[in-house]
Design brief:
The chain is mainly α. It is 95% helix and 0% strand. Helix 1 runs antiparallel to helix 2. It is rod-shaped, with a radius of gyration of 27 Å.
């Protein structure tokens, strides 16, 4: 009876650990996609700014307006980059917490296995 209880709890523990691993992996993928997209947008904005300077140098006032708009968009993209960094930090913290939980689960598993061995010896 006690052995089955430990066995069920161990299964539940492993299922929870696997769910945590999957969630962390998916979160990491999503953060990576956001980061890649933001970096691509920053590169595109830089190219557009350089192009505007080269092509429209003679229309100085308009170029300044375009440049100002592009720099505002670039600043917005940089803010997105900061948000991504914050997400990456949160992800790292979450992964550290998960690692700590896994360590605790491993210790609990060892205790459960020890208890199961003890119960088996008593039964025999």
């Amino acid at each position: 009876m006690r052995f089955e209880w430990y066995d069920r709890n161990l299964d539940t523990l492993f299922k929870r650990a696997e769910d945590e691993r999957r969630i962390m992996f998916e979160l990491g993928i999503n953060v990576g996609k956001i980061k890649d997209k933001t970096n691509q947008e920053l590169g595109n904005l830089d190219s557009r700014i350089r192009y505007s300077r080269r092509e429209n140098g003679h229309t100085h006032g308009r170029v300044e307006d375009i440049e100002r708009t592009l720099w505002m968009a670039r600043d917005t993209a940089k803010t997105q980059g900061q948000k991504i960094s914050a997400l990456e930090t949160m992800l790292a913290n979450q992964m550290n917490m998960c690692q700590e939980r896994f360590s605790n689960m491993e210790a609990a598993q060892l205790e459960l296995e020890k208890e199961v061995r003890y119960l088996r010896q008593r039964r025999n």
